[in-house]
Amino acid sequence: MVFSANDLQEWKDFPKGLKVLLLERDNISAAEIRAKLEAMDYNGLTFWIPSFCIVSTFCEENEALSAISSGLESFHIAIVEVSSSSGQGGFKFLENAKDLPTIMTSNNHCLNTMMKCIALGAVEFLRKPLSEDKLRNIWQHVVHKAFNARASILSESLKPVKESVVSMLQLQTDDEQHESRVSRDIEKVSRFVDNDHELSSGNDKYPAPSTPQLRQGTRLLDDGDCQEQTNCSTGKESGEHEGESKSVETTCGNLNAESTPQQRKSEITLVREEVESTPQQRKSEITLVKEEVDIVDASKGESVASPHTQKRKVLSNTDRNTKALIKVGVHSDSCEIRGNQKKIKVDWTPELHKTFVKAVEQLGIDQAIPSRILELMKVEGLTRHNVASHLQKYRMHKRQILPKEERKWLNLRERSYCVKRPIMAFPPYHSNHTLPLPPVYPMWGQSGSPTAGMQIWGSPGYPFWHTTAENWHWKPFPGMHADAWGCPVLPLPPPQTPGFPYSQNMPSLLNADAVDHTFTMPQSSFEHYPAEEVVDKVVKEAISKPWLPLPLGLKPPSPDSVLAELSRQGISNIPPKGSNSC
DNA sequence: CGCCTAATAT
DNA sequence: AATATTAGGC
User: Where is the HTH myb-type domain (predicted)?
Assistant: First the structure.
């Protein structure tokens, strides 16, 4: 049966009219299920539909299969009983009706059976008896399949579903009268829908919705690949709102035609915050991950001149899981889309931060000012303020000036230098190597690191030890510009301790005693470190007079950093070593 | 004006 | 907790 255009237009009440194939040996059981499907009370509000589903019942597997293959009837979804007593028990159907989203049901609740069903392609396993609640959301599988199956293998029966849903959503979008939350959410969704071609390619990439989600939430997609991006904003919000908010996440993989791999832009996550909602009015949140997003949010218009013309290009780094994504979290309340969206919160994901760091390093310490960084980052929508704010924090961390809260627990030698130094950042009462260490590791600039949700700043007190160009450079004294002018002389790491996973990254300095025995400075005399101003002065002098020998405590810059600095200053020709003519 | 920093707000 | 915003100084 083929749906005509008229049929489609009539199908405004989707999922009413869902055609269900029911494979059930027991007639009585079949009748019960059928009755429930046909008389579905959908949430008691949107529609009460006398004939919610059109059910065709079969009691034999082969019959059902031939009904499908005959093409005389078109189904959207199948509910198939796993039977141990007869025939192939439903698995034959399952394997031969791949195009049809199939829900397996059984009295047998054994995990193996369930597992087998899912493994063979069932979209869901439902335990019998089938309640109305369990059946209520079966249509979601249909929509899911319709939108996520490869277009080429999309069965004819599901195409109308897709078109119908698309058309439904767009109808509402076009309705300017309704600036309701729902319509705006749908607008977002339909934009995703418009772009579904690319994402359709990964057929089973997105888990199907599952029946137990009886809340309003409709999970269109739940992309495991974007976990690292998503947990930043949605995790927080959904946590705050407990069960009152829903979270819809979508991802689409459109490549922006204009962006070449070299031009790939950074990921940025913007969160539009709720403006004036009371706890009772908590509305839903929809989070979209898109590669191209209309920035309808001019904020203060700092760098976003025309909100609606702003498109965001995104990097899509294929060799890693650093998909170029833009996430816009919308706490859509009663605020207008173009109206008063004021607060965009930039989520400084590791990727975005990496771009930031890159820009800063490219500019060099003296040139790294917000406006230039912003320029270099080429992240549209990002404002100078955003950058400035981030830069502020970046600098603070570079100088090991921890916010007071972070400093509080560093309760010893509060006024001595050591508290600001990484080596003393560990709690002093951990005086041996058994101290508990954080399970994760700071990851500044670790490109494409899959460490989802990790704070890019690292845990307080566990600063960054990596010394690659992309990472933070450890600087023991405030004001020391180790990036360009070398790093402080550190003692060599002790022999690596087997079974101590972090020893590689946390050399030697696990406690003050270790420091005292290995550090080249006078022992047990942190109080003897020069005053901050003195250090500053020394460093400044070293910077301004690079021809002079470096003071104790500083080591020369690495050749790489020198080359980088030279090239930054436009000097590309370096005379060979021997030719020292001056 | 833009930048920097610290404090404070969200 | 992470960012944004603000204020005051340069």
Answer: 340-399
Whether residue A139 contacts residue A210, with contact meaning beta carbons closer than 8 Å, is answered with: no
| Residue A219: per-residue pLDDT | 35
**CA gap A445, A470 in Å, rounded:** 5
Q: In this structure, what is the dihedral angle of CA atoms A135, A140, A143, A144, given to the nearest 10 degrees?
A: -130
Closest to A513 in 3D by CA, of A418, A398, A415, A373: A418
Distance in angstroms: CA A532, C1' C5: 30
Number of CB atoms found within 10 A of residue A198's CB: 12
Q: What is the CA A396 to C1' B6 distance in angstroms?
A: 11
Distance A70 CA to C8 C1' (A): 80
| Domain range annotation of chain A | 5-153, 350-402
How confident is the model at residue A400, as a pLDDT? 59
Tell me which protein residue sits closest to nucleotide C2, measuring alpha carbon to C1'.
Answer: A347
**Average pLDDT per block of 10 residues along chain A, 582 residues long:** 44 73 91 82 43 84 90 88 79 90 90 90 92 85 84 75 74 44 42 40 46 38 34 36 34 35 41 38 33 36 36 32 33 36 70 85 84 84 85 78 47 39 34 36 37 43 35 37 35 34 33 35 41 55 55 61 66 53 38
Bases on strand C under 7 Å from any protein CB: 1-6
Residue A346 CA, nucleotide C2 C1', distance (Å): 10
Query: Nearest nucleotide by C1' from A384 CA?
Result: B2
Characterize the bridge pairing of strands A247-251 and A285-290: parallel
**Paired tokens of A131:** 């309640």
Residues with CB under 7 A from strand C: A 232, 299-300, 342-348, 385-386, 388-390, 392-393, 405, 455-457
Handedness of CA A315, A318, A319, A321 (dihedral sign): positive
What is the pLDDT at residue A153?
Answer: 73
Checking each nucleotide's C1' against the CA of A366, the nearest proves to be: B3
Q: What is the pLDDT of residue A462?
A: 37
What's the CATH fold of domain A5-153? Rossmann fold (3.40.50)
Which of A 310-369 have CB under 7 A of nucleic chain B?
343, 368-369
